[in-house]
Amino acid sequence: MAEQDPAPGCPRGKQKQPAFTWEVRANDRSYHRQVRKKFAFCLSKRKYSGNAIRTAKYNLLTFLPLNLYEQFHRMANVYFVFVILLQTFPEISTLPWYTLLFPLSCLLIIRGLRDLVDDIGRHRSDRSINSRPCEILAGSRFCWRQWRDICVGDIVRLRKDSVVPADLLLLCSSEPSSLCYVETADIDGETNLKFRQALLVTHQELQSEESMAAFDGRVRCEEPNSRLHTFTGTLRWRGRTHALDGDRILLRGCRVRNTALCHGLVLYAGFDSKIMRNSGKIKRKKTKLDQLMDRLVIVIFLLLLATSLGLAVASGFWARTFQEKHSYLAALYQHTSPAHQAFLNFWGFTILLSIIIPMSMYITFEFIYLVNSCFINWDLEMYYGAKDIPAEARSTSLSDQLGQIQYIFSDKTGTLTQNIMSFKKCCVNGTIYGSGTGHENKQPQGSGLSGERPGEQKSGVCDVTLLEAAQRDNDPVLREFLRLLALCHTVMVEDRGDQLVYQAASPDEEALVLAARSLGYVFLGRTQDSITIRELGKTRTYELLAMLDFNSDRKRMSVLALCGGDAADAVRGQPGGERGRVPRLGPEAPRGRGAAGGARPGAGQALRGDGAEPAAARGHSHRGQAARRGPRDHPAAETGQHQSVGADRRQTRLLTDDMEILEEKEVSEILQAYWESNNNLSGHGDAPCSLSQQHPETPCHKRAIIISGDFLDRILHTGEVLKEKKGWPWQWLCCGRAEASQDQGALVEKAFVDLATSCQAVICCRVTPKQKALMVQLVKKHKKAVTLAIGDGANDVNMIKTADIGVGISGLEGLQAVQCSDYALAQFSFLQRLLLVHGRWNYLRICKFLRCFFYKTFAGLLAQVWFAFHSGFTAQPLYEGWFLALYNIFYTAYPVLSVGLFEQQDVSDKKSLEFPELYVVGQQDELFNYRVFGVTLLHGVGTSLISFYITLWAFEDHVGTKVVGDYESFSVTVALSALLSVLVEIVLDTQYWTVLSFLMVTASLLLFCLFSFLTQTVDAYRIAPAIFRFPDASWNALTDPYVLLVVLLSLVVNTLPSLTLHTVRATLGRASTQQRIQLRARRAPEPPVELRSHVPRGSFRRSSYAFSHQQGYGGLITRGDSLRVRDSLCVRDSEDSGRVRDSLRVRDSRDSGRVRDSGNGLRAGDSLHVRDSL
Amino acid sequence: HSTSEIIILKAAEFKKTKIDYTGTEPSSPCNKCLNVSWDSTPPCTCTINFTLEHAFESNVFMYYGLSNFYQNHRRYVKSRDDSQLNGDNSSLLNPSKECEPYRTNEDKPIAPCGAIANSMFNDTLELYRIDNDTRTPITLIKKGIAWWTDKNVKFRNPTGDGNNLTALFQGTTKPVNWPKPVYMLDSEPDNNGFINEDFIVWMRTAALPTFRKLYRLIERKNNFQPTLQAGKYSLDIAYNYPVHSFDGRKRMILSTISWMGGKNPFLGIAYITVGSICFFLGVVLLFIHHKYGNRNTSADIPN
Fold first, then answer.
1. Which long-range contacts (CB under 8 A, 24 or more apart) does A79-87 make?
2. Of A93, A325, A328, A1076, which to mutate for an interface test with B (greatest number of B Cβ within 10 Å)?
3. Could you tell me which chain A residue has the CA closest to the CA of B259?
4. A1172 is catalytic
5. Which ipTM value was assigned to this complex?
6. How far apart are alpha carbons A642 and A652 in whole angstroms?
7. Residue A183 to residue A257: CA distance in whole angstroms
8. Is residue A837 pLDDT above 90, yes or no?
9. So what's the pLDDT on residue A869?
């Protein structure tokens, strides 16, 4: 039985593989239903989950308990509940029960509602996903069902463009050799097509519905896991066991492309599918201010405890006095000791002052963050109209940190440069076509080629002469060259109505194919073993004999093709195309490979000696032209993509095509922007780092260093080794040397970081994604700095995740970078605005908000402490319960909120951009830190003291008709004084007035009036005298002119100092900003890095290609199946097999002994291959 | 500036007389009563003579003032039952627990319960004008001293058949320190029981340990005569309220009142001070602005 023999088909054996305990029986639902597994103590659940997913957290019943449980993970909430529980003891309940319960429940409700809305959204999306249609084999026929009906073991039919509903084992497809094309954009963001292939046996046997219904194979494989790219298992069917690997699996979330029909067996459904297993929790990044705030809350809490303790001790002494002397109170002190009283009063004070803990701060904070993110999303200046991509703040809790960035790490390819490929230049038969040859300024005339369908002619040709030459069609070499361009690639074509859409694995391929098309050689389509092109209007089909995909070893691609039917033509018609990818390591880097003479069959080892017609192809790397012309201009501009494709046949000298920087102008502009913003940032002594995978040339910019990945590795490696050592404390405890070396390693790292940060720019070339992340880590660790990483590709994900803020460039290389980023921008140049404008404003806003928030809390509520000194330290609350309950969320929240939302523009956005010096405040934490907090605290203390003592002195000696120093009037007066002082202070502090800010302040006052009225009406008192204790108190107090005068006095006294300060600052303070700017003007401006392009901008196509880090799929197209042995050829070309081997040898030697020929770029007999490596 | 001047001028018009009758000094007529207890019978009485230098033209308000008396003590403030005071019959017989230990006495509910009511000020003050050795009593009006809200909303007598307060308060007992039950506070029915204004005024607790409470009104009789002529007066005190144990003081204050209250130097002085500071600051800032402001405005960052 197959069950007893778990992995007969697994060659790797048991020691490496976990036991294949996941068994799937095709078309056997009952089996999968009955199998159960233990998951807790003695409970068990079904082993195989259904395909319905539930990402929603709550349902009707669980919402309340679960949501509350989640909310009480927040310490502040727990604390408040603790205090509320404390209040139930009558001896210490100093505040009425609703004072804390009301705001707390308000906050809980608000947050709960938000969670609810989110969860409803998740429910909706779950429902829509679960009810997507799909075809399931039921009985012997396929029926339309919904995704949620799918069970493990079902057979599912998928059509073109449908989404794979679960992890499937591909059984068969309508394509020849059971290929199935999938796009994995939703999984890893890569938009190139990938191939999956079914087992031959299933493909052949399962062609009808009946056979599928009868299919009873058993798959044994790993338990569900999150490894997206690996799969091992076996299929046991009809007594034979077949090994399965990742290429047989269609993952949930993929989209089937270019395949009419395919069938799959469900292996993992629902939450067992790899993509679902992979969706982990996102780690929330915390901003510096966030952390500071958390610490401040603790500081406030400690202050509270200390104050309570001090007051409680005092109350102990007073208790003795009360007990002994105050006869009217003595009865209250029966049977207690002063210590007991002090203990009770300690808790009483803790409850009384707990309102000072900023309960509503976090939620206000979140709201401000949210709105600020919306401002970023709505910013039209950061909207990229060409692609309809606005900036997007994906993480809403980091906006203030944008104003504090100290180091920027940027990916180069695709981020700084745009990675746009277009055909620029080629050299065929000794003639150089393209830009730089003097022809490029001519407008191509009569470019409408015969046979071109409308809409296809859009890729501009760089050179009219080339077009003319191609149309004349009298140069066989040129013809071969163009044919080669149209044949040698792995582009897939999709016919959308009147337009051919090319799906290329890499942008350069697409550019070449497009170039061929615009020159009259239109690639029309491919089947598994043929390629159809239209050569100058004549459609020809080439039989594809072999395809050698690009890989990083060969650095080229070859195709063996045979022109249909025509044997004579076959020999000539098999251009072996090779493209070289040569790593460009710098000016002195090896550039080129000696041209191998002779008709060396360059099609490599994949021919397997099957006697295919030798195709001579030779790759040659060439940087010549570009290197010679470019470098003196500006190296940085040269970092664009150079490409050349060469092909060589019959030892003639050959077709050379040199693709130059596509959008060189664009690149330089972007680089310009980059340097500008970097200069802006570095203008005050901060060194931005540019991390880039390949940025080999030294920019002629002073104070910049370049570090290669290897060097980086050495530095980082020491660190890592030491990290490992740290894990073994005894090692370095007992061994001093380890410790020394650890110190040394840290020193090396530190020295490196110091060196790097003293430069204006650091360029790291040829670094791996991990190194990028480590680099960020290094700076974060040693500089304690706020870092930002920006990138667009999957290789930047690590870096983006590591940095304090990750920015993804959207819409270029798939979604992976964006999906991990905190902010998504459409263009690199928007970064400047994001930081200098939005970042700065957000930082200003948040800081001002925090100051105002703490101020209003202290100013309003500390008066209770002072009152304790006059009430015998008995923790009698000064304010009425409702005032306290509403103070934080209704009376003062809105103006503070409006400060956080709208306060900004001390200078306009243009000035912010123009004077990046203004950004320094954020980098140096100037606007909110412990010192500012201390000042705010003192200010609040001052305000509360003034409000309290002015009222006290005014009331002490006062006689009047109504207000004769009674508690209620006193309370109302102090409350009103404090509230108004706070509001006026906020009003004074607001520099930027909007209608909304005005409304917010008005709303506060109105709410104060409204709620004072409501909670103090006579009717409310009649209903619940214990809850509404102050009937008509405000009315009685505030109709007394004397009280109004007192309020006015304390308001004036409170406002006077800050008003003076504001005036003085307005008069004198601006000078500092002014001086800064003058200083900057006086300082000789550093010459901006000049980036010029020597190639005018042409039309270009942007490829949406995500660099896949895997090998291309060309091999998959043809592997095994396409590369079929052709009998005729075999016979005919047997004599050539020797040559094939020859060529292999030659090629090998050529590869191993990379010719370091930095001399002349273009030599006779050389074909040029330059392509930017990844 | 103008405000503060008005306040000063106004304050100057006010007349105020303060008489401390605690009797801590041995020479004081009330010294004999210093160690009186809450319910000493007969009450210790003493008389203090004083002279008004100026006539009090308008209506005169009579206050009693206590100092070092913590009416804002948390547990003291709480020690009352608002429902009971609001006329709730069930609370009358079953007062709130907040009133402990003044909730019940000898198994009978106390009405009004609580420490505040229990410690109600119970000195009786009477004012006589001494004109050629004849003591003319001055009419002291005891109604109209409480807030309207208190009198009509917060405090209500229990309801029941008839208006006989004695019957309505059946089943309750008087507060421990009181000499007589609550329904015997006054002879007039609309000033008796819980709505007795002296009681209401006392129950409106003071914010600070030194406080005054309105005691009586003296209305101006006619336009030809000031309310209180200058001259000799005597204050007769039924001294019941002990304050000596906690170093308290007892005062009687006579004052006239305008729209902004009685005579109070603090506010006036404060306003003058603040006004001067404002003026001074204004001058200084103007100077600063004049000297430094111009230089910057032209070259400032334009928005």
1. A79/A301, A79/A354, A79/A357, A80/A104, A80/A354, A80/A357, A80/A359, A83/A350, A83/A351, A83/A354, A86/A347, A86/A350, A86/A351, A87/A351
2. A328
3. A1041
4. no
5. 0.93
6. 24
7. 7
8. no
9. 93
